[in-house]
């Protein structure tokens, strides 16, 4: 694969059309190719059997096709989750998780190798940002999971390693392809974009009218604490973030999810639950409480179960919809915030 060649899995349909017309081929061929690439998930041009051999050779002269390469997989004891490490074409690696729920199967997808946001609780950002993933590399994770499990992925959560809104263009292209009829046709409401709070991108996302589920990693109910846990808060403090979330809910009609990882003695006190209830008062939203996953390097210690229940009770009494997230695949560390890149650089 030469660096001058374009990865067709990275292109959306209009850009595929430009590619095909550039080869002097009728535009409708782009749609046919899109179905091979995004619906059937082929790994080579040779498999595109309704395109002539001559055309496939011309495509191969100008393009390449990334494809999922599973490096390792670990199945949780209860069989409800599988964690994958995918090897990328340059030797980097990303983790993804397949989760079976009663209501369908979800893929938790990484959007970057590493992350530059430096949240205090998170293992994904420990080594900083290595590089962005392309939209095709995000798509490959879903295809790889489907091919390995033989099951259809019906939901996607962008909660793997990386900050999706810090890799905004590629993330949007990925969503465009996975929701398309020529792709996996997953409804926008079954796609969750999780962010630590990049306000301008949240506002832009609302304007896209994609009806995506927005999840915001809140973790603190006031700025002083949030500045230390989620450092992007210094740039986009809670007042701006919550206003953007209220507008997102207003513009899309979609309930915003707030992720709140409970850490013993840090953000799990009763008065903090009260502050949180006041912050979210009257918003179309939902709070997901997660007993934090321990991360030794970060000194993160999860709250005790009784404290989680107490915190939940305060929110409920103040009319906030709240759930405690079931931990899937805890025995394989498959839970969010535990995804790392583990292959050594080439
Ligand atoms: C790894 S992030 C990726 C998506 C995006 N960058 C974000 O922050 O929302 C996914 C979720 O995992 C959470 N998370 C990170 N470390 C965690 C930990 N130790 N325990 C529980 N959740 C954690 C994040 O705050 C976020 O809600
Ligand atoms: S929580 Fe999200 S934004 Fe923060 S370091 Fe981890 S991956 Fe990055």
From TrEMBL:
Entry EC number(s): 2.1.1.192
* Binding sites annotated in the UniProt record for S-adenosyl-L-methionine: 162-163, 194, 217-219, 293
Asked whether the keyword Iron is assigned, the reply is yes
Please list the GO terms describing molecular function. Answer: 4 iron, 4 sulfur cluster binding; metal ion binding; rRNA (adenine(2503)-C2-)-methyltransferase activity; rRNA binding; tRNA (adenine(37)-C2)-methyltransferase activity; tRNA binding
- Return the SUPFAM superfamilies for the record: Radical SAM enzymes
**Cofactor: binding comment:** Binds 1 [4Fe-4S] cluster. The cluster is coordinated with 3 cysteines and an exchangeable S-adenosyl-L-methionine.
Q: Where does [4Fe-4S] cluster bind?
A: 115, 119, 122
Q: Which InterPro entries match?
A: Aldolase_TIM, Methyltransferase_A, RlmN_N, RNA_MTrfase_RlmN, rRNA_lsu_MTrfase_RlmN/Cfr, rSAM, rSAM_sf
State its location(s).
Cytoplasm
| One Gene Ontology biological process | rRNA base methylation
Q: What is its main location?
A: cytoplasm
Give start-end of the signal peptide.
none
Q: Where is the Radical SAM core domain?
A: 101-331
**Superkingdom classification of source:** Bacteria
List the active-site residues: 95 (proton acceptor), 336 (s-methylcysteine intermediate)
Q: What's the cofactor?
A: [4Fe-4S] cluster
Please share what else the UniProt entry notes about this protein: Reaction proceeds by a ping-pong mechanism involving intermediate methylation of a conserved cysteine residue.
Q: What is this protein called?
A: Probable dual-specificity RNA methyltransferase RlmN
